[in-house]
């Protein structure tokens, strides 16, 4: 990975939703192109908040966030060219997928991002066909996304994000709600994305995701700090540490 471009750089980032109650506590990190990063930590340690900062949905009260060397601020998104560039490149699968589903049908949900990007009708049809087969959601295309099971909603949400072929994929608890076969399919799909050189940043409690999926793991704690960074072997060989941070 050495020599790869730095995509994200956070310098002493602190964030609070309400004053005095920290949700992120002085976070500094760098993430390079093509890395697969796991974010582990107990409930409320700041994992989702960190993903929303990386997705340009929240902006820290303290510290700085850089994306491809450029400071990411609320104002950055007022530039339509940058907004388009960033939103094509970076996607976030929310923990609560209801937050990103809004179309009357699953087909419309899949078409939305492609329409925004100016794809032709025939390209949209082809992509919807391929993507819905890949995620096994062909039989749902005419349904309303709001009347699906939680697992079906998750697959539709993921498909609607990945159909635009983003380079940086932020996943918040992607295996929650999925049945065992869907988990296996998702994990194998994530492996394909990795092999294709995508950058994938995943917050998870699912320990079956951890081994073999991540180049580096960031462990967060109840103080909303990143306590440790390392590969699977380094993090998971220290059982005392894992107990201390409530991971096992
Ligand atoms: N919308 C909000 N308003 C106020 N406080 C919030 C909000 N969202 C999260 N928090 C607080 O911010 C802190 C970090 O929450 P966050 O959701 O980032 O944690 P998490 O590690 O993703 O948790 P989990 O594993 O339960 O999903 C927690 O103390 C939480 O209570």
From TrEMBL:
SUPFAM superfamilies per UniProt: P-loop containing nucleoside triphosphate hydrolases
Pfam families referenced in this protein's UniProt entry, alphabetically: ABC_tran (PF00005)
Protein's UniProt keywords contain Translocase: yes
Coiled coil: none
UniProt domain ABC transporter: residue ranges: 8-248
Keyword ATP-binding: yes
Xref: CDD domains: ABC_cobalt_CbiO_domain1
Keywords, in A-Z order: ATP-binding, Cell membrane, Membrane, Nucleotide-binding, Translocase, Transport
GO function term, MF aspect, one: ATP binding
Localization, UniProt: Cell membrane
Domain of life, source organism: Bacteria
GO CC, one annotated term: ATP-binding cassette (ABC) transporter complex
Record membrane topology: Peripheral membrane protein
Family to which this protein belongs: Belongs to the ABC transporter superfamily.
PANTHER family for the chain: ENERGY-COUPLING FACTOR TRANSPORTER ATP-BINDING PROTEIN ECFA2, HEAVY METAL TRANSPORTER
Protein name according to UniProt: ABC transporter related
Source species: Dictyoglomus turgidum (strain DSM 6724 / Z-1310)
